[in-house]
Amino acid sequence: MDIPASLLDFSLIQGSALHWRRFLARPRRVSRPVRILVLTLVGWLPLLALSLLQGDPAVSRAFLRDMGIHIEFLVSLPLIIAAERYVDLSLAAAVRQFAVSELVDAKDLATFEGIARRVIRLKHSATVEAGLLVASFAVSFMDLPHQASPVWLHSEPGGPHTLAGWWYLVVSMPLIRFLLLRWLWRGVLWAFLLFRVSQLPLALVPTHPDAAGGLGFLGTCQASFAFIVLAVASTLTAQRLARAPSTDFTNYALHLFAFALISLVVVFAPLAFFSRQLLIAKRRGDHSFSGVAAWHSRRFEQRWFHRELPAGQELLGAPEFSSLVDLGSSFTVARRMRWFPVDIRAALAVLSAAMAPMVPLLLADRRFLEVLLALGKSVL
């Protein structure tokens, strides 16, 4: 099957409607490590410099102690940018796999290509990116209920903004919000592509070794978003600790666990679009293999249990035994076919990414270390 070039070159990450983004997205002009360094310095370094230049020791100390800001711009922001290449390769490979593995029939390939082209056009929409940019700035100046402002944002409670506070509101906060909103938009586009593809008559194979009719690669593809989950989880954890410091890490663990469950739903929910076709393929496989297995088993019993062996043929090594074993293996695989194309490894990748920020918190908890040491002594 000849695969169209638009499917081979599919990319949901590279390119943008905004010219400055196109410049930053070209690896030949600006490498990814340089982009990470530049955007990190733009978002974080002026905050440090301006808080020191403010001349108020209280403001400087408050900024230096604000772990939420440091994690957000020194950990989360680099992760958000660094994940682009990995996620882009995973999504592109998934799009090609639909065609290479002939899940999409040749007669539907043009429709599949049209879906991919439409997604690319939406990705290049200047209106959408401008809207995301406006929303990023608008959030900075919205007085959200229950929103705790950093202490260093104001020179005094309820007073005017500090120099660092203005930079945070006008540059730093819109920057990272825009990056996150753009990832959200990419996720929506990818979910739209999966939805449209799920409407095509896919050639699912009940006996496929991935136990998902040939769609097992989608679970691995979705798991690539674990880097974004890790970035968001790190920021949420650091901000919660900075705004409400406490020694009760159990409370943080419960919140992170809730976030992990939400992440699992958000990341893997688009794969539910394929559940209907997978369920139909599983039922078809069950019925077909049941009939074939019954016919083969009857012939096998008639040949080996009720009649004499053909002259010169031994029981051991007879081809009927081999075919019976192969048929049994295929029938077992078909019966184990999942109606949701996600395996435990993909789910654990996202779950681990969401819970990873809890590890340093637990290591900082003296009670947890005491329990860990006690367990170690009991084992040894």
Automatic annotation (TrEMBL):
Residue ranges crossing the lipid bilayer per the database entry: 36-55, 67-87, 126-146, 166-195, 215-233, 253-274, 344-363
Keywords tagged on the record: Membrane, Transmembrane, Transmembrane helix
Protein name as annotated: Uncharacterized protein
